[in-house]
């Protein structure tokens, strides 16, 4: 029997009697990060990295939580479990599982370029590696983060000259914090949607240092938005909530913007391919660095990516999961109460 199996509740370690990022309630859940497709409510207990705890409390509410530091080993029914940096968002971790000398690593979501706030991705030697493939096509090859930040800054400056408010779309947990990094150099006049404000306040209370922002409320006068920058989640894009910022220019921050047609389809004025996931070269390098003899490919371009791995001599198989895509909030309605 393999150390890890794939069940209708999620990724399961029978020997340790725990699940990793289960999509149904279970007794023991080990959580890689706080995005809603990986952290779901209803389980009896949750194990996560210390930095993930406040975000889980925000999103799931009060539960039985246990936290560990990166690299700290714990014993679950004879199985040694430790969490290691994934570089995806704040607190995001890979799960290393060892039993009788056999090592599996469940990577969750990850990116290999350090972003300055999410921890630096750590390749972990293992026998079997479970990898996402959100951007598992050769077309996805990210520019360095500092270049994308420079593009965002120049775009904001040009909008200011044109008398337009800059509206940047990026999901509230992960992307918004990186966009704030980019904006620090060009403006201190930043307004955010309520969903982003909630994450901001949670992180500030947890001790993270983030740029100051203003929350958009129904009482915020329209004049306040002139010459400012707005950060909003994908769920707000195209909604009535956006009309108050006119005249404005909208830029979408997403790895999907690597394909120019996506910018046109989203009716955006600008697209910035800023992703919290590894690109094609990053995925390949991460997998090679593990030295894994077997690789399982989850959500994304599983068939293309796993086929390529097999062609270059890495034994790979597809696994279907309920994990989502980069824009986890894209289908979430935006109530006016969340302003």
Automatic annotation (TrEMBL):
Top-level taxon: Bacteria
GO molecular function, a single term: ligase activity
Transmembrane segments: none
Enzyme class: hydrolase
Entry-linked SUPFAM superfamilies: Metallo-hydrolase/oxidoreductase (SSF56281)
UniProtKB keywords: Exonuclease, Hydrolase, Ligase, Nuclease
EC number per UniProt: 3.1.-.-
Protein's UniProt name: Ligase-associated DNA damage response exonuclease
Native source organism of the sequence: Niastella soli
């Amino acid at each position: 029997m393999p150390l890890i199996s794939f069940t209708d509740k999620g990724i399961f370690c029978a020997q340790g009697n725990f699940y990793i990022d289960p999509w149904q309630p279970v007794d023991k859940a080990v959580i890689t990060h706080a995005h809603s497709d990986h952290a779901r409510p209803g389980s009896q207990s949750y194990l996560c990295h210390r930095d993930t705890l406040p975000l889980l409390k925000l999103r799931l509410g009060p539960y039985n939580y246990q936290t560990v530091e990166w690299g700290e080993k714990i014993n679950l029914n004879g199985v040694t479990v430790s969490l290691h940096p994934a570089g995806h968002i704040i607190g995001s971790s890979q799960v290393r599982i060892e039993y009788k000398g056999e090592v599996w690593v469940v990577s969750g979501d990850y990116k290999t370029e350090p972003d300055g706030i999410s921890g630096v991705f750590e390749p972990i030697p293992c026998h079997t590696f479970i990898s996402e493939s959100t951007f598992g096509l050769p077309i996805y090859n990210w520019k360095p983060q500092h270049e994308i930040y420079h593009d965002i800054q120049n775009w904001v400056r040009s909008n200011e000259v044109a008398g337009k408010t800059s509206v940047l779309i990026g999901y509230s947990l992960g992307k918004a914090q990186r966009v704030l990094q980019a904006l620090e150099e060009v403006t201190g006049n930043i307004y955010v949607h309520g969903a982003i404000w909630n994450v901001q306040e949670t992180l500030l209370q947890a001790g993270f240092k983030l740029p100051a922002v203003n929350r958009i409320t129904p009482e915020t006068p329209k004049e306040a938005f002139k010459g400012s920058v707005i950060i909003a989640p994908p769920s707000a894009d195209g909604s009535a909530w956006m009309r108050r910022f006119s005249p404005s220019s909208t830029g979408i921050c997403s790895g999907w913007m690597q394909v120019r047609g996506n910018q046109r389809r989203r009716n955006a004025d600008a697209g910035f391919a800023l992703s919290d996931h590894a690109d094609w070269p990053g995925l390949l390098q991460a997998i090679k660095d593990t030295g894994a003899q077997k690789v399982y490919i989850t959500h994304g371009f599983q068939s293309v990516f796993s086929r390529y791995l097999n062609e270059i001599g890495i034994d790979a198989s597809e696994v279907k999961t309920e994990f989502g895509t980069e824009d986890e909030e894209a289908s979430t309605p935006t109530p006016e109460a969340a302003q």
